[in-house]
Structure formats: C-alpha cells, structure tokens
Amino acid sequence: MRKLLSVVLMVTLVLIALTRPVAADTVSGAKIFSANCSACHMGGGNVIMANKTLKKDALDKYSMNSMEAIVTQVTNGKNAMPAFKGRLNKQQIEDVASYVMEKAEKGW
C-alpha cells in the first residue's frame, strides 16, 4: 500500500511539474530583443512613433504595462510594428515581454 501511494505521489508531482508554465527568461529575452527589436526600440525608444516608447510611463499611458499586453503586441503586431508570430515561438515572445517589463521598471 505504501509503495502504491509513493508511486501515485510521484506521478502526481511529475504531472504538476509538466503542466506548469515555464518562467520567462529575461537573459534570453535580452538576446532576442537585441536581434529582433533593438533596431526600432534601442534603449526603450521608438524610432517610428516617438511617443510610443517602451518606457514605463508610455507603457502605462497606452495600457501596455502587462505581460499579456506586450505578448499580444509582439505576437500580432499593430500599425507599423510587424507580427512576430511565426518568427518567434511562444516562449521567446514571453521572454522578450519579460525583458521589456524588467527594463521599463528599471528605467531602461
């Protein structure tokens, strides 16, 4: 009986571990940002639409101050910003969003 409970517990723990989302990686996000975003958003700026930067005040003003909002923007694009769906996978987009949020909080 003890052995059966141990096996059930182990299987349960493994299933929980496998279904939990992977945490965003800001180190990876920095590399992806550098390769894909920095041409337009160097230092948190925006060379196309100067008022829509990645700085905290602009993210707040334009309701882009959440992981979900940034992930949606990067995935689908909007206006002059291209969609990165298909170019970057879901984890890479989440990593970039995490990096942007972290940098905005620190003032770029």
From TrEMBL:
Answer yes or no on keyword Signal. yes
Question: Entry's InterPro entries?
Answer: Cyt_c-like_dom (IPR009056), Cyt_c-like_dom_sf (IPR036909), Cyt_C6 (IPR023655), Cyt_C_IC (IPR008168)
Q: Which domain of life is it from?
A: Bacteria
Question: Which keywords does UniProt give here?
Answer: Electron transport, Heme, Iron, Metal-binding, Photosynthesis, Signal, Thylakoid, Transport
How does this chain assemble? Monomer.
Family statement: Belongs to the cytochrome c family. PetJ subfamily.
NCBIfam families assigned: Cytc6PetJCyano (NF045930)
Q: What is this protein called?
A: Cytochrome c6
Native species: Funiculus sociatus GB2-A5
